[in-house]
Amino acid sequence: MTIEDDKVIRILDDFSGMASDWFWETDSEHRFCYFSRRMAEVTKFDIGALLGKKRDIIPAEKMSDPKWIAHKADLAAHRPFRNFEYKMHRPHDGTLLWIRIAGEPQFDADGTFVGYRGVGHDITDEKLAMQRLEESNAALAERNAELNEARRHLERSANEDALTGLFNRRAFERDIAHALQQTDQVVALLHVDLDRFKWVNDTFGHAAGDSVLRTASKRIQLALGDAGRPYRVGGDEFMVILRQLATDDLPIWLGDRIIEAMAKPIAISKQRVTIGASVGVATGLAGETRARLLISRADAALYEAKNGGRNMVCQVTPALQRQIDDRRSLASDIPRAIERGEFVPFFQPQIDVQTGRIIGAETLVRWQHPDRGMLPPGQFLQSAVELGLIDRIDHHMLVAAMQVSLRLREAGYPLPSLSVNVSEARLIDPLLPRQIDTLWIDRDCLLSIELLETIYFDEASENNQFSQNLSQLKELGVRIETDDFGTGRASMTGLLKIAPDRLKIDKSLVQEVVHSSQKRSLVKAIVEMANALDIDCLAEGVETQADIDAITALGCCKFQGYAISYPQSEEDLLAYLSTVPIAAPDRQGPNPDGSEDLSQIA
Fold first, then answer.
1. Which of 316, 343, 374 marks a domain boundary?
2. Does 413 share its domain with 495?
3. How confident is the model at residue 108 (pLDDT cuts 50, 70, 90)?
4. CATH for 88
């Protein structure tokens, strides 16, 4: 080292004392030959112990790291380097020390390598601060991940049905609106409803119902595959959205697959029961069809599928839509019709062919519509049920029937009995017995209420209020009849609990007795069962003399139907009764005194 160099180094050494950096120098063998005094102050190393030693023998961490290998390659090639960082522990206390160094190779006038000169810097505080920042960022990232997971969980909770795992109504409303915002694509909507879910809940309990819903959701998903997304929108109702239909018949095909899947038995409480499903289908063009309209059409199609016998797919067509619109228009007239007294009673006579006498009549409702004329119940009763107005119509019919009974008696043609239909809602109304007790003035005319076997037998017999009402009505002398018997699913237990006075054999069985040996055997079994239980029988829907002869041969001698008489207004009934023999009022049944030829009254 020349005098000039030594002077320069002293100047630099003095300068480095005012900074945190230090200077260092190595010889051609990479041995340290100089450190500025700042190095000892900062690092607490014994400079004397380091002079004469090579860098690679100074204990530093991770000297096998690829960065060290690259650094050694730079030294061997006499290349300059910048910002090489490494860490080591101070020898006097073992504390961590991070160092950043830079070096420039030195050559003499002949170009011979003579060593390195460079600077060092303590970056421990910087590294620790960076480490704390990284740890903080990692903690923040973890917290953000937790928050994102919590957000996703909340979204799933808000949009997912907890019972089945399907998307819920909220998600459906969002997705159907989004699907219909897309242009130039046809969107199909399937409304799926389980056919016998209420019966499962009532018979086996809500836990069994939940199990059925889970099974149904899995079967619907499997039936759809990737073609559509199912949603549980409430109770036993599911919606399916289909976008960009590959074929026009895809919705019907998928609806059939869902019905096929749900037709398979489900294990419930060690039993295997079949639930079934009905599907309504509607399609609309995105950008032109509103969500509410598409949902309304699918609902209407489902309604038609259920009315058509259930376990089927129905799609809204223009003709069907016109029928639906017409029915809705008619339904909107029902509340006003009740207020105006437009619902009127008609009566269908009942006869005992052994005596040839009229034994009573069934009260049937008709709507005298101001614009559409006289309407049969099939055109409006279901709408009245859906509107929650059927009980008001039933009550009006009961009042009207009792008034007609009095007027017939005053006219000299007293009916031995009258039967009226009572809705499910009224059957569990605690006020019903008192109302009937008040309205039933003509006690010489027996009063019967009719129960639908398909609705009441097993379910209603378990209802306490229904049982109390039935008991009180029987105490009043009201008789209990079952309507449409033979088509429902009443158990013997339910039949015995209700203990009806009469079974009215459904017309679908009566009209097949002449042609079907199977139906003939079924009717015979019903009659024999009724006789064994001391229950009266009456055949509904007889249309021909052949029907009467066939049913009579099976042991049932009481009938109503077109072969006897069509339903009649009060005026026509009075005229009719003036031409036929009427049984004497007898609470034990019609008086069997004498007989008449049926041809005289048919």
1. 316
2. yes
3. very high
4. 3.30.450.20
- Put simply, whether the predicted model's pTM sits higher than 0.90 gets the answer no
- Mean pLDDT across the stretch 322-338? 85
Place of tokens 């960022």: 137
Indicate the SS3 state at residue 304. helix
Q: How far apart are CA 459 and CA 449, in angstroms?
A: 17
Confidence of residue 2 (pLDDT cuts 50, 70, 90): low
Q: Check whether residue 494 and residue 390 sit in a common domain.
A: yes
Asked if the structure places residue 137 within a domain, the reply is: no
Q: Indicate which CATH number applies to the domain containing 278.
A: 3.30.70.270
Residues 415, 477, single domain; the answer is: yes
Q: Dig out the tokens for 596 from the structure.
A: 């008449």
Q: Is the pLDDT of residue 592 over 50?
A: no
- Which of 65-69, 91-95, 515-519 bottoms out in mean pLDDT, i.e. has the lowest? 91-95
Asked whether residue 278 falls in the same domain as residue 349, the answer is no
Residue 488's contacts (CB-CB under 8 Å, 6 or more residues apart) are 452, 453, 454, 455, 457
What is the rounded CA–CA span in Å between residue 488 and residue 459? 12
For residues 345 and 308, state if they share a domain: no
Closest listed residue to residue 71, CA positions, set 39, 37, 122, 58: 58
Assigned domain for 91 exists: yes
CB-based contact 277:292 (threshold 8 Å): no
Q: How far apart are CA 560 and CA 350, in angstroms?
A: 5
* Residue 492: per-residue pLDDT: 63
CB 456 within 8 A of CB 429: no
Task: Print the domain residue range for 301.
Answer: 169-316
The contacts of residue 218 (CB under 8 Å, 6+ apart) are none
Q: Examine residue 155 and state whether it is found in any structural domain, yes or no.
A: no
Residue 595 belongs to a domain: no
What's the angle, vertex CA 257, arms to CA 253 and CA 259, rounded to 5?
115
Write the DSSP string, 210-252.
HHHHHHHHHHHHHHHTTS-EEEEEETTEEEEEEES-SSTTHHH
Instruction: Report pLDDT for 45.
Output: 84
How far apart, in whole angstroms, are the C-alpha atoms of residue 257 and residue 175?
23
List residues bridging with 96 in a β-sheet.
Answer: 89
Distance between CA atoms of residues 23 and 12, nearest Å:
8
Map tokens 């069509």 to a residue.
566
Q: Are strands 502-505 and 536-539 parallel, antiparallel or unpaired?
A: parallel
Rounded Cα distance between 275 and 200, Å, is 8
Q: Are strands 357-369 and 417-421 parallel, antiparallel or unpaired?
A: parallel
Q: What residues pair up with 271 in beta bridges, in sequence order? A: 268
Residues comprising the chain, all counted? 602
Judging by DSSP bridges, how do beta strands 32-35 and 22-26 pair with one another? antiparallel
107 and 173 share a domain? no
* Greatest distance between any 2 Cα atoms in the chain: 157
- What is the number of domains present in the chain? 3
Q: What is the DSSP letter of 572?
A: H
